[in-house]
Amino acid sequence: MKRIGIVLALACIGLCAMVVRMRADDHERDQALRARLVGTWRASTMKFGGQESDLTKSAVTYKHVTPAGFMWLSHEKGTGKVFRAAGGTYSLKSGIYTETIEYGMGDDYEVIKNARIPFDCKVEGDKWYHKGKLNNGTTIDEVWERVKPNEAEQANNRRSERARK
């Protein structure tokens, strides 16, 4: 009987150690993912409600991610006029990226105002795959591409050239 108690105690200690290690591994993975997300991203494909959006053809959508927060905006190609934006804070837990919307503008903002939106999230190379569902049931499936510093500088140069003309 005493041996069974000892075996059970050892098994319990082993199980607890395994759970603690799994949580530490999740935390380390989340921290590594957070570090990879920091930067500027440009939407390359967007699906809303399962339908491919043509937004990437008529506008540029950027998402800026810091260690503590995020913001995204869309502006018309050519004019640079911003017509939608939102931002706030985010959390990462076990690979789930959850945005808490704190501010915004445009028609889209009314749908997501004050929402907490969880997304399955993975980064492969310079692509960020982002999939989730809004509170109203609309699914979002987006692919973002990292904006590299030289690309941002080139875009600024093109805007300056257009402004001079």
Please, could you describe this protein's structure?
This protein is an alpha+beta fold and 165 residues long. Helices cover 38% and strands 44% of the residues. It contains 4 helices and 9 strands, in the order H-E-E-H-E-E-E-E-H-E-E-E-H. Strands 1-3-4-5-6-7-8-9 form an 8-stranded antiparallel beta barrel. Strand 1 and strand 2 form a beta hairpin. It is globular and about 80 Å long. The N and C termini lie far apart (90 Å).
Summarize the structure.
The chain has 165 residues and is an alpha+beta fold.
Key traits:
8-stranded antiparallel β-barrel; globular; 4 helices; 165 residues; 9 strands; alpha+beta
In which order are the strands of the major sheet placed? 1-3-4-5-6-7-8-9
Largest beta-sheet details: 8 strands, antiparallel, barrel
How many helices? Answer: 4
- Compressed to H and E, one letter per element, the order equals HEEHEEEEHEEEH
Average pLDDT, all residues: 84
What percentage of amino acids are in beta strands? 35-45%
Helicity range of the residues?
Answer: 25-40%
Distance between the termini: 90 Å
Record the SSE blueprint.
Blueprint: H1 2-37, E1 39-48, E2 51-52, H2 55-58, E3 59-65, E4 69-76, E5 82-93, E6 96-105, H3 107-112, E7 116-124, E8 127-133, E9 139-146, H4 149-164
Antiparallel strand pairs: 1-2, 1-3, 1-9, 3-4, 4-5, 5-6, 6-7, 7-8, 8-9
